[in-house]
Amino acid sequence: MQDSPTQTTLQSTIEEAIVSGILSARIRPGTRLSENQLAGLFDVSRTRVREAMMRLESRCIVHVSPRRGWFVVEPSAEEAMMVYGARRAIESGLLRGMRVLSDAGRAAIRDHLAEEKAEMTAGNRQRLTCLMGDFHIRIAELAENPVLTEILRDLTARTILISMLYQSDFHALQSHLGHCRIAEAMEDGNFERAAELSIEHLDEVEMGLDLTRRPDPLSELRNSLSLPPKAFPSPSGGTLIQTDPIYKPFKTKGK
Amino acid sequence: MQDSPTQTTLQSTIEEAIVSGILSARIRPGTRLSENQLAGLFDVSRTRVREAMMRLESRCIVHVSPRRGWFVVEPSAEEAMMVYGARRAIESGLLRGMRVLSDAGRAAIRDHLAEEKAEMTAGNRQRLTCLMGDFHIRIAELAENPVLTEILRDLTARTILISMLYQSDFHALQSHLGHCRIAEAMEDGNFERAAELSIEHLDEVEMGLDLTRRPDPLSELRNSLSLPPKAFPSPSGGTLIQTDPIYKPFKTKGK
DNA sequence: CTGTTCTCTCTTGTATGCAAGACAGCCCGA
DNA sequence: TCGGGCTGTCTTGCATACAAGAGAGAACAG
User: Fold this and answer.
1) Would you say residue A134 lies in a domain?
2) Is the pLDDT of residue B190 over 60?
3) Residue A235 burial (CB < 10 Å; 0-12/13-18/19+)?
4) pLDDT for residue B5
5) What's CA B160's distance to the chain center, in Å?
6) Is strand D less than 7 A from the beta carbon of A164?
7) In A, which residues are within 8 Å of B199 by CB distance?
8) Pick from B86, B92, B199: which is nearest to A148 by CB?
9) Could you tell me the CATH number of the domain that includes residue B66?
10) Annotated region Disordered: where (chains A, B) (predicted)?
11) What is the CATH number of the domain that holds A143?
12) What whole-number distance in Å separates Cα of residue B39 and Cα of residue B14?
């Protein structure tokens, strides 16, 4: 009766594009996603764009303000804490439940850490944000449980949005070291220790956030003036969706 | 910018109705959900029904077979194991991360266990299935983390579908005792023990499934003949959505 | 009786059209 | 100079129309 045995949730192209845009920190929280623009970009009608948006909304990645538009979520401080809390519970539970680390898994982790290290010297913040999130997805993949992986992928997307909002300065080295410690414990086969370390790591990252800061109340103004976002250099170009001002200047009284 | 601080995912009425129908074991896996019928029932157009379906699909609760219809998912054996694996990781991680059990929480658990006990003597299997699932949602609520609660609610829904498919006989007493043990450990403040017990409990339940059995390959035929499902008495009535045969008899050459 | 083809009706897939609301800018009065 | 209403243009919300595919049943050939 089921079409595919594993039933991997097939996403629409639009959905994938937006999620991967967030996971790679190319799309900022609060970005407006216009149905018409997306429909044009992907050459489909608004109907299918809306379907993608509905799905993204149920994954808490996108949010609609009635008759104003769709926006990438800007998690509140409270929500940020919840997301970190959830990740602590899930990732630690996942690690503690592991029994063996396969050779392939060991290799994947090593490769990932090497990449983190390499990219740290390059210092590309956007790329680093993406990598730091990816580590946790890699870990989830080790458990070979697509259900968990999918859950953690969405939480990672939200985490990346959170760090774009609240992370004043980026402790890449600290994160990297945290990841190394977790990996070490895993290589030792000490998954209980790895679980504890993952909690510590997530605590550290959460502590590094400035949750008192309002999520950039000036972002709208900033966008309207076409200024670059606060702590980020303006993207080099080629972004799928630019963070446009909400309302572009009208054709001054065209007819 | 955000409309609500906690941003609780607001579901459409249709979505809620279907999920709650599953959580209360009134809707069986494989049930066809016709867009037209739902549109009629809720007095809206197909558009809104489809939106609800899209959201449910992204939550792995519903599944579309192209141009045949929407169906409540029938998780495969493999998927069933993944769901249980995910629940083990998440629920144990959640419990192990708890620090205190509030008085309100203690009361909620006690009330729930009492209700389980009461309903066991009554022996209403449908109601019991619902209660047994609810226990885990109650636990999630104790952590006061809506993100986790939502994740576990969806996993619980899928679990209920799984048990409707694979649970040959219903070990309500066994489940109830497992819940009692977990609650006891929590009341003692021994959350580590509670976490271990939750893993054991989920293992037990999973072991109680007959995953070798194909998910009722005759269900379609059975429905077409309007026979009651295998081990369940036919619902007393008042169900929101009846498990209709896929194709009702046509008006014999109406025109 | 059995298998094949055809037709007809149902289903979802997708685009489109219209309505209602939100906001920017204008105009005007104080 | 400032504030309040008006208007126009954008947005999403929602219903509807039509296209395309899937399957049941009828008709028919062997």
Assistant:
1) yes
2) yes
3) middle
4) 38
5) 4
6) no
7) 97
8) B86
9) 1.10.10.10
10) 228-255
11) 1.20.120.530
12) 9
Q: Are residues B41 and B86 in the same domain?
A: no
Nearest Cα to Cα of residue A89 among B162, B142, B175: B142
Statement: residue A238 has pLDDT above 50? no
How distant is the Cα of A170 from the closest Cα of chain B, in angstroms? 24
Indicate yes or no: strand D within 7 A of the C-beta of A254: yes
- Whether residue A58 is found in the same domain as residue A179: no
Both A41 and A163 in one domain: the answer is no
Distance in Å, alpha carbon of B132 to nearest chain A alpha carbon: 22
**Is the residue at B231 inside a domain?**
no
User: Looking at this predicted complex, what is its ipTM?
Assistant: 0.86
- Kindly report, residue by residue over A187-235, the tens digit of the pLDDT: 999 999 999 999 999 999 999 998 887 655 555 444 444 444 443 333 3
Distance A46 CA to C16 C1' (A): 10
Which nucleotide has the shortest C1'-to-CA distance from B255?
C8
Do A69 and A143 belong to one domain?
Answer: no
The Cα of B118 is separated from the nearest Cα of chain A by a number of Å equal to 32
Do residues B39 and B174 lie in contact, with contact meaning Cβ atoms separated by under 8 Å?
Answer: no
**CB-CB under 8 Å, B51 with A2:** no
User: Are A83 and A176 members of one domain?
Assistant: yes
Nearest protein residue by Cα to C1' of nucleotide D24:
B247
Same domain, A86 and A68: no
Is A7's CB within 8 Å of B79's CB? Answer: yes
Work out if B99's Cβ lies within 7 angstroms of strand C.
Answer: no
**Which has the higher per-residue pLDDT, A167 or A1?**
A167
Strand A32-33 versus strand A62-65 pairing type: unpaired
Q: Please tell me whether residues B50 and B32 are part of one structural domain.
A: yes
B18 domain residue, yes or no: yes
d(CA B52, CA A51): 10
Nearest-CA residue relative to C1' of D14: B47
The predicted structure's pLDDT at residue B11 = 75
Higher per-residue confidence, B211 vs A202? A202
B117 touches strand C (CB under 7 A): no
**Strand D within 7 A of A249 CB:** no
Q: How many domains does chain B have?
A: 2
Contact B145 A86 (CB under 8 A): yes
Instruction: Calculate the angstrom distance between C1' of C28 and CA of A252.
Output: 20
CA end-to-end span of chain A:
58
Q: Where are the beta strands (DSSP E) in chain A?
A: 32-33, 62-65, 69-72
Same-domain check for residues A42 and A90? no
Alpha helices per DSSP H over chain B: 13-23, 35-42, 46-58, 77-97, 103-122, 125-142, 146-166, 172-187, 191-207, 219-224
| Within a domain: B217 | no
Q: What is the mean pLDDT of residues B19-34?
A: 96
Which residue would you say has higher pLDDT here, B115 or B255?
B115
What distance in Å separates the CA atoms of residue A83 and residue A212, rounded to the nearest whole number? 16
